[in-house]
């Protein structure tokens, strides 16, 4: 897989080991993040909500940002307007969000979270944080905590990277 990815991104593994190593690291990071996200969903009780990860992500954004437009949600979640509309339809049907006309611009709708949505998001986030805190306490040695703090900082930088000048 790493060789295929290196070729896709233009890396010549025989003459330039840098891109190969970056691709292998990227694949390992992607795999670790997927496993951790799955574990967090399981530990938090997310599966019991009946909502998808995407729908819960949108709901969390509404709770955090609300009242908010669907266009703003799409930008926050890095998805299409159609995807946001689909998620909002499910969340509205479940009574977790509602929309009202924007008082500044009646053509727009502002989406707000119901109190039950706020409680749900807080419960899920608390479950995730609780699992992670226990895992950090039980799995990491005290000297590894600094490494984890540095990794968090690096992950934040990767998440904020602007690769518009040649990224995918």
From TrEMBL:
Record domain HTH marR-type: where: 22-160
Pfam family of the protein (one): MarR_2
SMART domains (UniProt xref): HTH_MARR
InterPro entries: HTH-type_Bedaq_tolerance, HTH_MarR-typ, WH-like_DNA-bd_sf, WH_DNA-bd_sf
Gene3D superfamilies: 1.10.287.100, Winged helix-like DNA-binding domain superfamily/Winged helix DNA-binding domain
SUPFAM superfamilies named in the record: Winged helix' DNA-binding domain
PANTHER family in the cross-refs: CONSERVED PROTEIN, HTH-TYPE TRANSCRIPTIONAL REGULATOR RV0880
Protein's recorded name: MarR family transcriptional regulator
Organism encoding this protein: Streptomyces blastmyceticus
Source taxonomy: Bacteria, Bacillati, Actinomycetota, Actinomycetes, Kitasatosporales
